[in-house]
Amino acid sequence: MKKKNLFVYTINRMRSATAYEIYKDDKRFEVNSAGTDKMAAKIISRELIEWADSVVVMEKHHRNSIRNKFLDLYKSKRIVCLYIPDEYDYMDKNLIGLIRVKFEEVMRKGLA
User: Fold this and answer.
1) For residue 84, what is the DSSP state?
2) What is the count of structural domains for the chain?
3) What does each of the 112 residues of the chain score in pLDDT, given as a tens digit?
4) Which of 3, 9, 32, 101 is most buried as measured by Cβ atoms within 10 A of its Cβ?
């Protein structure tokens, strides 16, 4: 069974959308993406978090947002932070490289 990873960012248009695009056809797992802000392209929800085996956030404040909105799920889900700052455009080649390196490291360590 494929592992399900949810990529989370603030507005789901740059970093998490790029991560989704990179991994959407990866045979190792299923991916989805969402944002924590009410203006997000797809807003994070209880259903999305429940769907995921692991939640991969880009910054610490995204993890804190999940904790504040969904405390029960926060306590029961694996949430990993990639620590990727908000300084890249969608599909920026540097962002793609950074996501690949950091996410693959997380996967190798079995953290997601």
Assistant:
1) -
2) 1
3) 899 999 999 998 899 999 999 999 999 999 999 999 999 989 999 999 999 999 999 999 999 999 999 999 999 999 999 999 999 999 999 999 999 999 999 999 987 7
4) 9
pTM: 0.93
Question: Residue 96 has which token pair?
Answer: 């793609």
Domain that holds residue 16: 3-108
- Whole-angstrom distance, CA of residue 18 vs CA of residue 60: 18
Range 56-69 burial, b when 16+ CB lie within 10 A, else e: bbbbeebbebbeee
Widest Cα–Cα separation across the chain = 37
Query: Model confidence over 23-35: pLDDT tens digits?
Result: 999 999 999 999 9
User: What span, in angstroms and rounded, lies between the C-alpha atoms of 23 and 2?
Assistant: 13
Give the CATH number, domain containing residue 89. Answer: 3.40.50.2300
H-helix or E-strand spanning residue 96? helix 93-108
Nearest to 99 by CA among 51, 62, 27, 91: 91
